[in-house]
Amino acid sequence: MIVNRWQASVIPSKDQLELMFKLEGLKPIEEVYPSKSEVADHRHPFDELRSVVSGELMINVSGNKLLLRAGDRIIIPANTRHSTAVDAGEDCVSIYAHRIY
What we know:
The chain is mainly beta and 101 residues long. The protein has one domain (2-99): Jelly Rolls. Helix content is 10%, strand content 49%. It has one helix and nine strands. It has a five-stranded antiparallel sheet, with helices on one face.
């Protein structure tokens, strides 16, 4: 797993985050997690790349909990067990893509 924390004072827009994915040859997809929602443990046969547009997303990757905020990005390797949750009172909007080798 690789986590990149957004350090700049200006948070990138949804369009800018989508462009970052496209420049890597990926197809970005918007996903909205409603407040207080959860996605149970699961795995994928591909790498999952995800950036948070707004809100906060708690990701549990093989027992390691990480709170992602706007601008943060994570790469979850193929076949890695992970789950997500939105604990805050607002929805979380994220952009994700998958990479198959």
